[in-house]
């Protein structure tokens, strides 16, 4: 592998599985080995300050690499970086899909009121007024005000699917047996102090004071599905 020319096999931090994913290599850039990186970090120095980073390619363990330089491309919302030893387009293409990592111990310290995404995912969400468990944070969606995606603890009942055959048509084709795979229902909660006044990382919980209607989900309990037997190509065997 060309990657073996610049990856240090024996360099690894002492903590096992203690990684932060900061970006993913999406493609090569030009002919000199530059790489396009889609960032998953809000800290530009991760991609612009030279020094040690870690690279994890599919099916491989993280390896140490040296970031030579990097620059931000505003219109594309990505970074162009150079890694030591990657000097051609061929070498760069081999790294497509690889992840850039740093050890968790390298996380920057944040001022009060700011949080790392990794710290928020998995927190329980509770109504401050009653203590009722609402769900669990499963993702953070960047926006003007970041949004917490919360998987509800109480999942709504699945809709009932009723089949209707279009009249005046006859066919021996049997109706299909339709099965609905349940999908977890989530809600989006603005991550602002007025709605999320309490973030307790030690207790792994958030307390929310949602305005009326924020958590309401309007689901049809019955869906009418019209089936034309002459067009429904279900095999008879």
What does this structure look like?
This protein is mainly beta. It has 2 domains: 104 residues, RimM (Elongation Factor Tu (Ef-tu), domain 3, Beta Barrel), CATH 2.40.30.60; 102 residues, Roll (SH3 type barrels), CATH 2.30.30. Helices cover 5% and strands 37% of the residues. It is built from 3 helices and 14 strands. The strands form 3 sheets. It has a 6-stranded antiparallel beta barrel. It has a 6-stranded mixed sheet with strand order 11-9-8-7-13-12, with no helix packed on it. β1 and β2 form a beta hairpin. The chain starts with 18 loop residues before the first strand and ends in a 10-residue tail after the last strand. The N terminus and C terminus are likely disordered.
Strand content is 35-45%
What's the name of the CATH homologous superfamily of the largest domain?
A: RimM
Radius of gyration, CA atoms, in whole angstroms: 25 Å
CATH class of the largest domain: Mainly Beta
- State the distance separating the first and last CA atoms: 51 Å
Give the biggest beta sheet. 6 strands, antiparallel, barrel
Number of strands: 14
Shape: elongated
The percentage helix is: under 10%
Q: What number of structural domains do the residues give?
A: 2
CATH fold-type name of the largest domain? Elongation Factor Tu (Ef-tu), domain 3
Number of contiguous helices = 3
Q: Which ranges are low-confidence, i.e. pLDDT below 50, for 5 or more consecutive residues?
A: 1-10, 218-237
Averaged pLDDT, please? 80
State the order of secondary-structure elements, H for helix, E for strand: EEHEEEHEHEEEEEEEE
Q: What structural class results from the helix and strand content?
A: mainly beta
**Sheet with most strands: strand arrangement:** 1-2-5-4-3-6
Q: Please give the oligomerization state of what you see.
A: single chain
Proper CATH architecture of the largest domain: Beta Barrel
